[in-house]
Batch of 3 targets.
Target 1
Amino acid sequence: MTRSSNKFIADEDIIAVTDWSFGAVDQASIRFAAKVKAQAGAETELREAAEKAEVEAIRQSGFTKGFEDGFAQGHAQATIEAQRQMADYIRHEGQHAADHFMQLFTSAQQQISESEQTIAKGVLELACEVARQVIRRELSVNPNAVLPVIRDSLAVLLSDGKAAVIRMSPLDVDILADDIHGEFSNLAITLVADAALTRGGCLVEAAGTVIDGTVERRWQRSVASLGLESNWESERDAS
């Protein structure tokens, strides 16, 4: 027979009775509450730390930007100042270098000019020496070379038909006497042999005026027109 259900437990079904305590439940609740509180505190600390980190990041970002801006500005100013100093240096040093170069260039030009003058003088002296030797040879083989000098001198002195005295070397007088008298037969000409005169030269005198047609004098006039001084007779010729 089945026993009907009853909300109460029968006495015969109770074997033993033990007192029930709610302490265990209370301790669990306390631990759970502490755990929740600790978790909430940790979350609060994390949130505050995150907020501080965000604030610091913002502050650092602003500082960094300010630092970068300041650095960029300082770098730009330093670059401008360096460029200005470099420009000043280039301007002053460049002017100094230009002045120094101009001095060197002027000095070089002077040296070149002096060298050119020395070379030109040397070339002229050599040319004069060659010409002197050629003239000496020409006078030795061609006594008629003196005739143009006599003609020019007489044309100047005897325009009014006066008498003239012509001095020449003895050899030239012997060779040219007949030619001179024949060419100037209408003039009163006296030929005088002068051993002091070089062949190819002469002295023409009329009415107290003397034209120096000696070789030495004509040579000096020729080389003087070239800015040189050179004697007809050199030391080698004298020796």
Note: Residues 1-5 have pLDDT under 50 and may be disordered.
Target 2
Amino acid sequence: MVEDTGDFTRFPGNLLRRCHQVAVALFLDECSEFNLTPLQYAILAALEKDGPQDQITLGGATAIDRTTVTVVTRNLEEHGLIERKKSPRDKRYNIVSLTNSGREVVRDILPAVENAQRRIVEPLEKEEAVQLIMLLEKMMAANNKLSRAR
């Protein structure tokens, strides 16, 4: 149980929020030459991993809500990194796929993304970093049903 100190700065939610801010700042610092946000990278990486898919499936794979997926994919399309086409089976769905430029960006950005991830856990000992990842995965899995984007 988390100790109730009344000090909001020690609340798990506040600490996770602050760590998220740090993670985004490190990502943007390491990946600045690519002009991508973490959400844009997540979409590109999911498409590289799983191939073309409809926007709803893509949102589920990246835990990004439908509205945000629409905005992010529109932006990536405008930059020529993905293409969206109507599904031949159901015109209500957009099928999203990487362009050749998108594939190149995913390949080229990976070392910078890995550096950002390394920097996030750099203050920790190796065993602590492994434990942190395990604990975050456990928290996410147990609480995922509460998320707006599943």
Note: The helical segments are 12-30, 38-50, 55-62, 66-78, 100-121, 126-143.
Target 3
Amino acid sequence: MGILESKDLCKTYGSGEGEVKALDHVSIQIEDGHFVSIVGTSGSGKSTLLNMLGGLDRPDSGTVTISGKDIFSMQDEELTIFRRRNIGFVFQNYNLVPILNVYENIVLPIELDGSEVDKKYVGRIIDTLGIEKKMTAMPNQLSGGQQQRVAVARALASKPAIILADEPTGNLDSKTGMDVISLLKLTSQEFHQTIVMITHNEEIALMADGIVRIEDGKVEAGDALC
């Protein structure tokens, strides 16, 4: 069993003529420490799949297990705590808190959980991402690439089992986007993180260890294991 596994995930939106099968019996398995890209055309179901893998939305049927635990067997509050402790998220729009400086943004999830910040570990992440001189800066003083590096640092800081990245280069120019993906790959290796990333960019997708292709809510044959 991989660290992250889905079995027969189904999700339908709407009804009647407006019914859309966003996920149609999707089963994938991702191994510990791997960096996997999920690719597909707009409306293929890739964002829905990522939301299910992260426990942000519940399926109509099917299961998602993380480190052997069925996340949808949990009640909402238990799932929220599990998600905060085991999954780091990197979003296209960075989602930094504008009234907090860079360091405060990075350690925010740890403090929300009532845990103690591992300053040495967080320091290594900050150095690896090259943002050590920006700790007191506010988000609006950073470039897009710098903001995304802060978002990556925040996702890594709580030592989650899995990082889920939703189009992390979508708002960046091509060079900065490639730099961010290179850093994601580096941190995956350096800190032994499992990373699952949505992207529409084939060049970026090829930088991952494996690719899952999804179309019309179904995973293409041969892409179930990564």
Note: The first helix runs from residue 46 to 53.
